[in-house]
Design brief:
- With 144 residues, the chain is mostly helical.
- Helix content is 58%, strand content 6%.
- It has a three-stranded antiparallel sheet with strand order 1-3-2.
Length: 144
């Protein structure tokens, strides 16, 4: 019985290696509710079923999309019921797209501010700044 279980089960280190992560990350996924608590060997080792690989890869894919762990937990809970998780996934992904759009707008504004600051820098012969100031005299563009 043990020999069969070892072939169909993975210890935490094996699962971590296959999925390209650390054993601590696997344990964290378990503590966070992303992975169900696995069975234990008589010696106390975690024994994950082989289908955990697919679950971890799903989690990693969600993380690459920028979903938060609590959102991934929600998706997995729906998925574990056997129902299609497409509707909740669509809501989460649309929300993530909106977040990205806001972040892109913020970064574009930051880029424009930086370009303005660069344009206001003197081309040659930069005079020394006055004590206690950032910009040289006559070049007060650093704060606007």
């Amino acid at each position: 019985m043990i020999a069969v279980q070892e072939r169909t089960s993975l210890r935490v280190g094996e699962l971590a290696r296959i999925c390209g992560m650390s054993p601590d990350a696997v344990r964290y996924y378990e503590r966070s509710g992303l992975l169900p608590a696995p069975e234990r060997s008589p010696a106390g080792y975690r024994l994950y079923p082989s289908n955990t690989i697919e679950r971890v890869r799903f989690i990693q894919g969600c993380q690459r999309l920028g979903l938060r762990l609590n959102e991934i937990v929600d998706l997995l809970q729906v998925r574990d019921t056997g129902e299609c998780p497409c509707e909740p996934a669509g809501v989460l992904l649309r929300r993530r797209i909106d977040e990205l759009d806001r972040e892109i707008a913020r970064l574009n504004a930051l880029r424009a501010d930086l370009k303005t600051m660069v344009k206001r820098l003197p081309d040659v012969d930069c005079p020394d700044p006055l004590p206690g100031t950032w910009c040289p005299p006559g070049n007060e563009g650093g704060d606007s």
